[in-house]
Known about the structure:
By secondary structure, the protein is mainly beta. It has one domain (23-136): Immunoglobulin-like. The chain has one helix and eight strands; from the N terminus they run H-E-E-E-E-E-E-E-E.
Amino acid sequence: xxxxxxxxxxxxxxxxxxxxxxxxxxxxxxxxxxxxxxxxxxxxxxxxxxxxxxxxxxxxxxxxxxxxxxxxxxxxxxxxxxxxxxxxxxxxxxxxxxxxxxxxxxxxxxxxxxxxxxxxxxxxxxxxxxxxxxxxxxx
Length: 139
């Protein structure tokens, strides 16, 4: 009987911890940060995490500055990176040209209905741009 009671408690707790299929809201104000920035000259992926948002309601757009111009990553045709339920994301920031020579990398946390227009997103906070992280790299 004690074992059955323990199993019931486990399932009740499990149901209260996200069993409804909705990704969790990660505590705090909306924020984005890098957990791994590739070194200048590297072809490694950019990694980061977000917090203060429901991960189902946001996405990330990454932009690099290389050879005097801003480029969206991974591609202009598919500019957004999904955020995993645990709040992490990974973006390929070296998809062509001399991307490994980028001197600045920016990642914007945006609302899921944000539409990329080809221009740099506005500085946060705004209605659809919630937060921004940036890294400066040098040779």
